[in-house]
Model the fold of this input.
Amino acid sequence: MPVHEFPTTQWSLILEVGEKDPEAAKRALVHFCENYWRPVFCYIRHRGNSYEDSCELTQEFFLRSQQKNYLQGLKKDRGKFRSFLLTMVKGFLANEWDRKMAIKRGAGQVFLFADVQEGERSYAKFIDSNMTPERIYDQQWATLLLERVLIRLQNEWDQIGKLELFEYLKPCLSGEGGKYREIAGQFQSTEGAIKVMVYRLKERYRFLLRQEIAKTVSEPEEVEDEIRHLISLF
Done:
């Protein structure tokens, strides 16, 4: 399943809209949740559920987020959307009736997401892991954030006709680059010019990452805390 762009509605905006138009806020919340189904799936899967049951439970969880007013009490629980969503999932799984209804109602339904096997592929590397379900959830969350930032960068470079150059420079973001002379020769440039491009690429990457994280917290000062937490996961 292709990684979708983030919805324009930010977490803080969901809270604000919830006071004036609960239905609009609920739609925004559902849209936001659906962008994060993969961490939810991996969390449920690592709680000891089979692939089939995890698919059904994940679908049931998101169906219920559309049917129930999950916005009640958000002002009290405002903060990181990552934590809020995980709390929702834990509450859902804690109810044994929800489990039974998930299996009963989920059977035979078309799954909400285009490629549920993507979730299983993401989870595969954790099958024999001694990591907690919560840490796996957070790692998947962080991975999605980084994927979205890279997609935004890729689209920007594609728009200016430099997608091929971007692919050469992209490894520099993770410290795997450094072959500036080779890249310069490939694109008839200079080593110094390539170093400047890499510097600007990293600066843009940091800026976009902060933007994406800002969409998932309710207060500006929480951005740095979230960045530190996500970095610690790797």
Remarks:
- The chain has one domain: 11-232.
- The longest helix spans residues 133-159.
- The radius of gyration is 20 Å.
- Residues 149 and 209 are 6 Å apart (CA to CA).
